[in-house]
Amino acid sequence: QVQLLESGGGLVQTGGSLSLSCAASPRTYSVFVMAWFRQAPGKEREFVAAITWMDGTTEYADSVKGRFTISGDQAKNTADLQMNSLKPEDTAVYYCAASPPISLGLRNNAKKYDYWGQGTQVTVSS
Known about the structure:
Blueprint (H helix, E strand, L loop, with lengths): L2 E6 L1 E4 L4 E8 L7 E7 L6 E7 L5 E3 L7 E6 L4 E6 L8 E8 L15 E2 L3 E6 L1
Parallel strand pairs: 2-11
Antiparallel strand pairs: 1-3, 3-8, 4-5, 4-9, 5-6, 7-8, 9-10, 9-11
């Protein structure tokens, strides 16, 4: 069973930066897509960003484009999320997700992911 271990997160002021990291353990060849989702209180879980080893592409939610950057290491099965210019509306629990191959256009769908981390809190104060 693949486990996702998240680190990072915390409290930051508006305009600040935070970095999240996720590692799949044990290292496995079954992970082809890694992503970050987030869930704010009272809201549904939403897609943030994804990276795939299949074609090297990255995808972002419109709300974070230009501010967040996802990067990863296929050999290590890790995915990092660099978050800049943070806003109070970015406050949420951030979850790492991973999966075997997912078709283009479907990587923003949480139901397509097999593995999930426990989540890490990100709080942006105004």
